[in-house]
Amino acid sequence: MNELEEARQGIAEVDKEIASLFERRMRLAGKVLDYKKGNGLPILDAAQEERVIARNAGNIADPAIQEYYVLFLRDLMKLSKAYQGRLMNGMKIAYCGVPGAFAHIAAESIFPQADIVPYPDFESAYRACETGEADTAILPIENSFAGDVGGVMDLTFQGSLYINLMLELDVHQNLLGIPGARPEDIRTVVSHPQALAQCARFITERGFDVREFSNTAAAAEYVASTADKSIGAIASRQTASLYGLEVLEAGINSAVANQTRFAVFSRARNKTSQPETEGEHFILVFTVRNEAGALAKILNIIGSHGFNMSSLHSRPVAGPLWNHYFFAELEGGVGTENGRDLLRQLETVCDRLKMIGAYKSIKI
User: Fold this and answer.
1) CA 118, 122, 127 angle in degrees (round to 5)?
2) What pLDDT was estimated at residue 300?
3) For residue 58, which phi and psi values (nearest 5 degrees)?
4) pLDDT tier, 126 (very low <50, low <70, confident <90, very high otherwise)
5) Strands ordered across the beta sheet of 209-212
6) Residues with Cβ < 8 Å from 170, sequence gap 6 or more?
7) What single string gives the DSSP state of each residue in 105-163?
8) SS3 assignment, position 335
9) Cβ partners under 8 Å of residue 75, min gap 6
10) Which residues, 6+ apart, have CB-to-CB distance to 181 below 8 Å?
């Protein structure tokens, strides 16, 4: 056997080992997906990929070979994500609305291979995940212009699901009409109340009558069904394409910066988050005891532990008059010893305390 044959035989033996390790790695990637499905997490985790590449590249001593090994790892991860995408085909994502709604757009962006299932309202989508009918629910929790979505916040207090991810979706509202309609033909606009609020200045200037719909896509679907040039919908460009409408005027938001945050709910709380990683947040909902200075004590405990409270909302509790719960978002890692001590101290002063979840935000 000459040197060429020996080298080829050596490569064949290595390739056999690689094949066995490749199969093992892909099966482990499947287990990673099982965890992500259970916790409402997307396939792509760019930060984790970069950490793996940086760590593994150090295993190669030869700098020239190391460059190719990094490329090999990137290709390997691309294949892993494709395999996970195939396995995810049976995953069901609940959202409120109809195809083309902003929640549908958000769900497709983060879970493109999954089965995106519409529900008529926030609670039915939430309960679908709670009962196991769906794996994950994606619901809006706040708009930068119209404010918080109180109904969804109430579900976090009443229900049992966790938030493990936040999606930040730039919202661009448009005036849609049936083919052949012109902006001056429109007399009435229909849309979700928040979309109408986001475009209040535009609506007032044009003197339009308004009608509220359960969501923007349902409004567009209605306009398409009327064949009436005098009725327009306020919705996304994607919705226009979906229902055969035309964009009569684009970008009619009163505020240029218009963003909706969608919470990704699941039945399990993600416990793999890295508590000291920049950009992590967590959510607490709590009620205070009926005594003087109760809320101040809670805020002092949070401040003494060095956590910045990015938002605090007060919502009425169904039942006793004037009872409220609080929905608080804090910056930092709750998984640190400092975070765990925060929760222990809050339990001593809160009448009821729930850790809704730790999350990072993804902009889509």
Assistant:
1) 85
2) 95
3) -70, -10
4) very high
5) 209-212, 188-191, 231-235, 174-177, 246-249
6) 258, 259, 363
7) HHHHHH-TTSEEEEESSHHHHHHHHHHTSSSEEEEEEEETTTEE-HHHHHHHHHS--EE
8) coil
9) none
10) 229, 232, 246, 248
Helix, strand, or coil here: 360? coil
Return d(Cα 223, Cα 204) in angstroms, integer.
Answer: 20
- pTM given for the model: 0.74
* Per-residue tokens: 331: 């910056």
- Residue labelled with tokens 């929790």: 141
Cβ neighbours of residue 29 under 8 Å, at least 6 residues apart? Answer: 80, 83, 84
Pick the closest to residue 171 from 280, 286, 254, 111 (CA basis).
254
Name the CA dihedral angle for 118, 120, 123, 127, rounded to a multiple of 10 degrees: -50
Average pLDDT over residues 140-167: 86
C-alpha distances (whole Å) from 327 to each of 75, 209, 285, 350 are 42, 35, 5, 13
User: Which residue do the tokens 């992500």 mark?
Assistant: 36
- Identify which has the larger pLDDT, 89 or 128: 128
Tell me the β-bridge partners of 134. Answer: none
**348 and 289 Cβ atoms separated by less than 8 Å:** no
Whole-angstrom Cα distance, residue 68 to residue 144? 44
Q: Is-contact 159 354, C-beta < 8 A?
A: no
Distance CA 177, CA 175 (A): 7
| E strand map for the chain | 92-96, 115-119, 136-143, 147-148, 162-170, 174-177, 188-191, 209-212, 231-235, 246-249, 259-266, 281-288, 308-316, 324-331, 350-359, 361-363
DSSP structure class, residue 245: -
Contact 170, 163 (CB under 8 A): no
- For CA atoms 149, 154, 159, 162, give the dihedral sign: positive
- The pair of structure tokens assigned to 165 is 């991810």
Q: What percent of the chain has pLDDT over 70?
A: 95
